[in-house]
UniProtKB/TrEMBL annotation, chain A:
It is found in: Cell membrane. This is ABC transporter permease. PANTHER family: ABC TRANSPORTER PERMEASE PROTEIN YPHD-RELATED-RELATED (PTHR32196). It comes from Acidisoma cellulosilyticum. Its main location: membrane. Pfam families: BPD_transp_2.
Automatic annotation (TrEMBL), chain B:
One of its GO terms (molecular function) is ATP binding. SUPFAM superfamilies: P-loop containing nucleoside triphosphate hydrolases. This is Sugar ABC transporter ATP-binding protein. Residues 4-517 form the ABC transporter domain. Keywords: ATP-binding, Nucleotide-binding, Repeat, Sugar transport, Transport. It comes from the Bacteria. PROSITE patterns: ABC_TRANSPORTER_1 (PS00211), ABC_TRANSPORTER_2 (PS50893).
Length: 340, 525
């Protein structure tokens, strides 16, 4: 996390530099709070004007169902980003979880509740693997989770034997697509509840506070007697568990598990986290922000679809939007220390 | 005869003047010693001479011609070479590649690197230096003195490669990590350099080394040249007095405090740490060498010593940030073991001096920083048993600390936006509200302005009066004398003095003498 020059320069020249830097952070904070909101409003306005079907009740419900799993997957990963690491295995864990769920439900006839618990356990194990690689073996989280994601994908392909598995069970579909509250699919309801809980945990629990502290200065946290390794492990486990939950609900929503189920969720989740305003260098942002990013990504994908933009062009637009979002919210001073 | 000289040199970092109106010259074929306390401006001077810093005003000339270099590499091309405290070599490159790093263009043949020429020249250099080195080996196979010797050899060779008549070699405290025999060898290499016609500058804290090889000595203090002349004009006492500069003050503020008869709070016995990591292989002696000490309840003990004396390592051993190779510590009669966290729970507090990197999180609020070490549950903690944060308690404690230490900030302000003094107060407040049994502090007032300094002293005295024992290290001599009930001096990893500051008022002169070490064994009083 070091970004210091020589001691002599530090002692005498750093104070004004530090001032400037933190003024920058504050303005960055403001931008990070307002820009996603403004962008969201502009996008909704634009799509609504362009294609009235965008604001139809049906499409809003569809968007909700799309946003739910993405929110679940992004929420846990937010904590990993917040502590200055990154989790690139979420999409793989989600797909593996869906595959496991499908096999348990369809092949073994397990009840949806038990299958859900099994996927939770799976998530915890995957998170533990990531944490072990990152903390004990000290592999940078970027490469550790990239590699573990590949492993999880391989396991998933074995579980599914490389092909789609249809789950022939109405109850499971009801879990995700049912509407306890009219117009709001259950998967979105659950995701929003989880968002509320994690946002509160982020700012009002020891775990949340420690994660922010680790992201802000891991060495300071360590010298303050915080069990850094333990809390990093919790964050990785939380991330994978929520990815697994997201995967299970994705299965429930679609009714089948396919090897390509999680495609796109990795980029979307990281984009949602960063667009929401959590800094990739850690210590700034939080779970409460991620919901905005998820809304933005969902509106963008869905709007482009509804307006009939070609899927090829959609990919381009999405990539450009993410880069712009990162450019406007990033803390440039910490650019040197990013990507770990 | 050529000459590297500076005239009227002034250098300022914003408002801090590191060098003021310095005149100095280094002629070829002589060795000039430069000496001064930490912060006297020695490194700044070398930085300017070697092109890494640029003077605010004044001139740097070589043979009367202004030296216009943008960086160290350009200075190299003018024949100026610096031997850093830590050799500036790249461990994974081969020896010959390291030797000619940055000057590969001299070995181009048809646009490609003529490796055999490089190797040949490197072999000659190694032979001249009487080193047993295979130039095709990677650098990290060789130990610190060898790497340093290679640097010296490179400096000797550089002018001839570049076609210059003579070069200048600046040694920046090169003997810090060396054993006695290695020092002797290095000094003889310096003499060789001199004989070959190079101008040599030699910065060292060790007076005897300066007396051994230097033709002239220049004494710096607070950025001024306070003394210069032929080596014969100086003796150790005179140098000490010039370096310290201040009138040898017998402290006005001695705080006679009752010595308690209670058993000591913290007892360290034979604490030792050997460097084992490969990157520290150049430090061959013990970094902390069988240090034993006792600190009473509410006592303030300061440790002084030069860079590399091991004083910071000692503090970090007790804090639990480093693991001791031998020895042990007890706190109130019970062994003090385990991680930093375990020791924190037993009542140890540790305030490191590298504020931005180790003591505070600049991006977080004052409140978050103050609660940082106390996120646990329980009486002192900021969360309850199931891990819910006690926000109101945090606010209350933060406000109380802001009031007690007169921190000029609101609880929600980010710490990075505060002044150095207020940041330091936050770093202290983080521990003070815990009423630690022992507080370990590195440089309690580094980078803090004078007003805040006095305030911090007052708070530390108040803390000690409440029963916290304070053990601190500092590079600031007046601070050492002003704040301590007792002063310990460390040199080369060992404890060399234990001085009572209550009954007997210490002066800076004798402390400097103890830190540097007398060349001959001679009693102080």
């Amino acid at each position: 996390m070091a970004h210091k020059q020589t001691t002599t320069l530090d002692d005498f020249g750093a104070a004004p530099a530090a001032d400037k830097r933190f003024r920058f952070v504050i303005s960055r904070e403001q931008r990070a709070t307002w820009l996603p909101l403004v962008a969201l409003a502009v996008l909704i306005g634009y799509f609504a004007f362009k294609q009235h079907a965008f604001v139809s009740g049906l499409n809003i419900t569809v968007m909700g169902a799309q946003a739910g799993p993405l929110l679940l997957i992004s929420l846990g990963a937010t904590f990993v980003v917040l502590m200055g690491s990154i989790d690139l295995s979420v999409a793989a864990v989600a797909t593996l979880s869906a595959a496991l769920g499908a096999v348990l439900l369809q092949t073994f006839g397990m009840s949806p509740g038990l299958a859900f618990v099994a996927t939770l356990v799976l998530g915890a194990v995957c998170g533990l693997v990531n944490a072990l690689l990152s903390t004990v073996l000290r592999v940078p989280s970027f490469i550790a989770t990239l590699a573990s994601g590949s492993v999880f994908t391989g396991v998933m392909l074995h579980v599914l034997d490389g092909s789609a598995l249809l789950v022939d069970n109405d109850a499971i579909s009801e879990i995700a697509n049912g509407q306890i509250i009219p117009m709001i699919p259950n998967v979105l309801l659950l995701a929003v509840l989880a968002w509320g809980a994690l946002a509160v945990a982020n700012s009002h629990s020891r775990f949340g506070r420690y994660i922010v502290a680790i992201g802000g200065g891991e060495r300071v946290a360590q010298l303050s007697g915080i069990a850094v390794t333990r809390y990093k492990t919790y964050a990785f486990m939380l991330s994978s568990v929520f990815a697994a939950i997201g995967g299970y609900f994705l299965l429930a929503r679609l009714g089948s598990a396919t090897p390509s189920l999680g495609d796109g969720y990795l980029l979307d989740s990281i984009a949602a986290i960063v667009v929401g305003g959590t800094s990739l260098s850690g210590g700034v942002g939080g779970a409460s922000r991620t919901i905005l990013g998820v809304a933005l990504i969902t509106v963008l994908s869905n709007g482009l679809n509804v307006c009939g933009v070609s899927p090829f062009t959609q990919e381009i637009v999405k990539g450009v939007v993410i880069v712009i979002a990162v450019l406007t919210t990033i803390d440039r001073v910490s650019l040197q220390q990013i990507v770990k | 005869m050529s000459e590297l000289s500076v005239k009227g040199l002034t250098f300022a970092f914003s408002s801090f003047v590191a060098l003021k109106n310095v005149d100095l010259s280094i002629r070829s074929g002589e060795i000039v010693g430069i000496i001064g306390e930490n912060g006297a401006g020695k490194s700044t001077l070398l930085n300017i001479l070697s092109g890494t810093l640029h003077a605010t005003s004044g001139s740097v000339t070589v043979d009367g011609e202004a030296l216009a270099v943008k960086n160290y590499n350009e200075a190299n091309l003018k024949g100026i070479w610096r031997i850093f405290q830590d050799p500036a070599t790249i461990p994974n490159l081969r020896v010959y590649e390291n030797l000619f790093l940055g000057h590969e263009s001299k070995f181009l043949r048809f646009g490609l690197l003529n490796k055999s020429a490089m190797i040949q020249l490197a072999r000659k250099l190694v032979a001249d230096m009487q080193l047993r080195v295979d130039v095709r080996d990677v650098m990290h196979k060789y130990d610190f003195p060898t790497r340093q010797a290679l640097e010296v050899g490179k400096a000797t060779l550089l002018p001839s490669i570049l076609g210059l008549s003579s070069g200048y070699v600046l040694f920046d405290e090169p003997t810090t990590g060396l054993t006695r025999s290695e020092v002797t060898l290095l000094l003889s290499r310096m003499r060789q350099l001199k004989a070959s016609g190079a101008g040599v500058a030699f910065v060292s804290h060790r007076l005897q080394e300066l007396f051994d090889v230097c033709d002239r000595i220049v004494v710096l203090k607070d950025g001024h040249v306070v003394g210069a002349g032929a080596t014969a004009e100086f003796d150790e006492d005179k140098l000490h007095r010039m370096m310290v500069g201040r009138d040898v003050q017998n402290l006005a503020e001695v705080k006679p405090r009752a010595r308690s008869d209670a058993p000591p709070r913290l007892v360290a016995k034979d604490l030792t740490i050997y460097a084992t990591a490969a990157k520290d292989a150049h430090i061959r002696r013990a970094e902390v060498d069988h240090v034993s000490l006792e600190i009473g309840t509410g006592e303030i003990v300061g440790i002084g010593g030069l860079l590399g004396s091991g004083k910071n390592h000692l503090l970090r051993l007790i804090a639990g940030d480093m693991r001791a190779s031998g020895g042990g510590v007890t706190l109130d009669g019970r062994p003090l073991l385990g991680s930093l966290k375990a020791r924190k729970d037993l009542g140890i507090a540790f305030v490191p001096s590298d504020r931005g990197r180790e003591a505070i999180v600049g991006a977080l609020s004052v409140a978050s920083n103050i609660s940082l070490a106390s996120g646990h549950s329980g009486a002192l903690g900021f969360s309850n048993r199931i891990g819910i944060w006690r926000g109101r308690h945090e606010q209350a404690v933060t406000k109380a600390m802001i009031k007690e230490l007169a921190i000029k900030a609101s609880p929600e302000q980010t710490v990075g936006s505060l002044s150095g003094g207020n940041q330091q107060k936050v770093a202290l407040a983080k521990w003070i509200h815990r009423d630690p049994r022992v507080m370990l502090i590195e440089n309690p007032t580094a980078g803090v302005d004078v007003g805040a300094k006095v305030e911090i002293y007052r708070h530390l005295l108040a803390l000690a009066a409440r029963g916290t024992s304070i053990l601190y290290v500092t590079d600031d001599l007046p601070e050492l004398i002003r704040l301590s009930d007792r002063v310990l001096i460390m040199r080369d990893g060992g404890l060399v003095a234990n001085l009572d500051n209550r009954s007997h008022a210490l002066n800076e002169h004798e402390l400097v003498a103890l830190m540097i070490g007398r060349s001959q064994a001679q009693s102080l009083h």
